[in-house]
Amino acid sequence: MKVIENRALKDEEKMELQEIQLKEAKHIAEEADRKYEEVARKLVIIEGDLERTEERAELAESKCSELEEELKNVTNNLKSLEAQAEKYSQKEDKYEEEIKILTDKLKEAETRAEFAERSVAKLEKTIDDLEGMEPGRGIRGIQRKTLPIDVNLFPCPPEGGGRDLAHVLCSVLCQS
Question: How many CB atoms lie within 10 A of CB 119?
Fold first, then answer.
């Protein structure tokens, strides 16, 4: 019986040890289950965050593509505007040169007009002087070289045209 008691005692100690080990194993399993549930919950949260982040990334990529396309369009428009600016700059230079030429022509025409007005005034004075001359010495007796103006500045009017004094004098001078 001693052997049986010893054996029973050993078995009892072994059983107590196994019960302690079982309790520790249950405790470890419970802790593992708790950690698993916590990790699973975190995984669900992270997966949700991942989905939202992927959606934001897709939107950002889409926006980036749109902005790249817009940048390409803006670049093309800029090139087109630069080409137009160059073209208009050349036209502006051409027009400025044309304005300068026309301004010079205007000044020349104004100078000729002033000279013509002075010549008309001289012609009118000459006509007034001729009208006051003694009879028998009419307008036909005056030679072109005695007039103080260049008669070639005034083209003679066609037959029957012109009624002012300058044209009358011109037509008379052209006939002599």
Answer: 19
